[in-house]
Design a protein that fits this description.
The complex is a heterodimer of chains A (252) and B (314).
Chain A lengths: L2 H24 L8 H28 L6 H6 L10 H4 L5 H22 L5 H30 L2 H14 L11 H8 L6 H18 L22 H9 L1 H5 L6
Helix pairs in contact in A: 1-2, 1-8, 2-6, 5-6, 5-7, 5-9, 6-7
Chain B lengths: L2 H13 L12 H20 L1 H5 L8 H26 L5 H9 L17 H21 L5 H29 L3 H20 L11 H6 L7 H18 L10 E3 L4 E3 L5 H11 L3 H14 L1 H21 L1
Antiparallel strand pairs in B: 1-2
Classes of the chains: A mainly alpha (252), B mainly alpha (314).
Bound molecules: fe (ii) ion (FE2) (2 copies).
The site of one fe (ii) ion has 5 residues of chain B, from helix 4 and helix 7.
């Protein structure tokens, strides 16, 4: 794979993670457990959509066949989406959503930290800006994980259940393919194995503080970066892409 | 000082355009009227998140997605801000929410209509926020200080919303035949509900007179409605939208647009809970409020535990 194609693929993966994660958070709009948290989740979603747009814009600029960021968001199908399986999982209750957000933003934070040293100036620029947001997302979600873990018996049970359910999708975030090989060798992206080591440590610390047990589940479900998804992504795209698909060529 | 003298002094302050602050003496009826109006305003901001949220997952572009989500977030923020301002009158947010759930407190009846196509998001921003602005600009001069300051702050954001809504309508009126159809359909459905936002005609308004005297309200329902009609009809025509009222006529003498009388029977029906979405909106709020119980309990228990730990280690 040449570097340009690898950068293009990588930008899609980053953008897709942000977009799908933001879409899931948007489902909470007007449904939060308290108004302040309703707005906080919208806030996270807005940050993520902004990050998605930056990566899509860059990707679109690298591919002569792509007109715009919107085409990439609204006109690709399931098998052309490269987001990690974790972010497409259903929201469940507030504990599942916050746990999902926590596991993902811990990854994002480490990823952006690494990418601030990227040899690609655009990726470096986007990541430097996004890192500030990811740090906040990580703090916000880890505070909730601790709060729920140490709150009441019910909240502890719910958040333990949440991690039991989600843990199986976490190694997928660190799976690598030819894209990563090319970008590691050119110093554009990071080795996800290294990130995985750091992630385990960071996540482990918070879970310990939250008095939660790390599940002992097999983690073999993978495929996001190669466009292999769970059943959920198709439904997310169906809803999100509805207007663009129903009225091709219209300007909105 | 007798009650009567206090009342006189209070009215004198109002007449002199002084602002009343939470700690000042005020007649019980004034306090009640404000709580009613301000909590209704706060609830409207929050319930209004639902019809717009209905399109948050289906916004057609990344830009539209961000604008809509940010707008809904603004409205929630207005709700928060107004709840706090109302709390200065001695009622807490939980009680206000309880009153909403029991049907004792109302919210704007306009949110009991459904959002059926994407142009509805344009129509809400342009017409509903547009009508809200006319009302809220007038309320910037309301006699209660906290409410007046809230209106000044909120109005700035509402005018953004209004412009963004009009932009959606403009884009769609410049678009495909299907898009124009959607825009006109939205216009047809939102016009009358938006006009009704100003409340019943002056001769039929239960609380108006006293509210005007205490300057809780500054201008009558009909005056505000006419102001909205005059500016909106021109905006509609400018982008090729028809007003769904065959009898509109510009009166050159008064320099005002004349419109058909509104169906106030429908208004009363919707206010009394029989609109197309009343049940849906209220049940939605109750459902998610109740589903959030365990989260709020957990947060409280955690905060209390942390406090205990702090006092034992200190
Ligand atoms: Fe508002
Ligand atoms: Fe608004």
């Amino acid at each position: 794979m040449n570097t340009k194609d690898a950068v293009y693929n990588f930008c899609l993966r980053m953008a897709d993670n942000n977009l799908i994660s933001g879409q899931r958070l948007t489902e909470w709009c007007s449904r939060g457990p308290i108004l302040e948290e309703d707005l906080a989740m919208t806030n996270l979603a807005l940050d993520l959509f902004g990050q998605a747009e930056s990566f899509f814009d860059y990707a679109a600029s690298l591919n002569g066949n792509v007109k715009s960021a919107d085409d990439l968001a609204f006109l690709r199908s399931e098998r052309q989406y490269y987001n990690n399986l974790l972010v497409e999982q259903p929201n469940g209750d507030f504990a599942v959503t916050m746990m999902k957000q926590f596991l993902f933003s811990a990854f994002q934070k480490l990823m952006y930290e690494a990418l601030t040293e990227s040899n690609d100036d655009t990726i470096k620029g986007i990541s430097t800006k996004a890192l500030k947001e990811a740090k906040y997302h990580f703090r916000h979600s880890s505070e909730w994980v601790i709060r729920l873990g140490k709150g009441t018996k019910e909240s502890h049970e719910r958040v333990q259940l949440a991690i039991n359910e989600l843990w199986r999708f976490t190694t997928d975030m660190f799976e690598m393919n030819a894209t990563d090989e090319e970008l590691i060798s050119t110093g554009i992206s990071a080795n996800l194995e290294t990130i995985y080591g750091k992630w385990n440590f960071v996540v482990g610390e918070i879970l310990k503080e939250a008095t939660l047990a790390i599940p002992d589940a097999a983690k073999i479900i993978k495929g996001g970066c190669n466009g292999m998804h769970t059943e959920h992504l198709g439904h997310i795209l169906t809803e999100m892409q509805y207007l663009q698909r129903a009225y091709p060529g219209a300007t909105w | 000082m007798t009650e009567e003298q206090k009342l006189e002094q209070f009215q004198a302050r109002i007449d002199a355009e002084e602002k009343i602050e939470p700690k000042d003496w005020m007649p019980e009826e004034y306090r009640k009227a404000l709580i009613r109006q301000m909590s209704q305003h706060a609830h409207s901001e929050v319930i209004g998140m639902q019809p717009e949220g209905n399109w948050a997952l289906r916004a057609p572009t990344l830009r539209a997605k961000k604008i809509l989500l940010a707008k809904i977030q603004d409205e929630g923020g207005h709700g928060l801000y107004l709840y706090s301002a109302t709390e200065t009158l001695g009622i807490d947010r939980d009680t206000m929410i309880e009153q909403l759930h029991e049907g004792k407190a109302k919210y704007s009846s306009v949110f009991n209509y459904p959002t059926l196509n994407w142009a509805d998001i344009g129509a809400i921003g342009w017409l509903v926020d547009g009508a809200a602005i006319v009302n809220q600009i007038s309320l910037q001069r309301t006699s209660f200080g906290s409410y007046s300051r809230a209106m000044i702050r909120i109005c700035k954001e509402e005018s953004f919303h209004q412009r963004q809504g009009y932009e959606i309508m403009t884009t769609m009126m410049n678009g495909t035949p299907e898009q124009k159809e959607m825009a006109q359909d939205a216009m047809n459905r939102w016009w009358a509900p938006a006009l009704m936002m100003f409340g019943p005609p002056d001769n039929d308004s239960a609380h108006s007179k006293q509210s005007l005297k205490w300057k809780i309200k500054r201008e009558s329902n009909d005056v505000l409605r006419q102001r909205f009609i005059d500016k909106t009809i021109d905006q509609a025509h400018f982008i090729g939208l028809e007003i769904p009222d065959k009898n509109i006529r510009f009166n050159k003498e008064t320099e005002h647009w004349e419109t058909s009388p509104l169906d106030w029977n429908e208004f009363k029906q919707v206010i009394n809970g029989n609109g197309p979405c009343n049940h849906q909106r209220l049940n939605h709020h109750i459902k998610y409020h109740n589903e959030g119980n365990w989260v709020r309990e957990a947060a409280l228990a955690f905060a209390e535990n942390e406090m205990k730990l702090e006092t034992t280690t200190n």
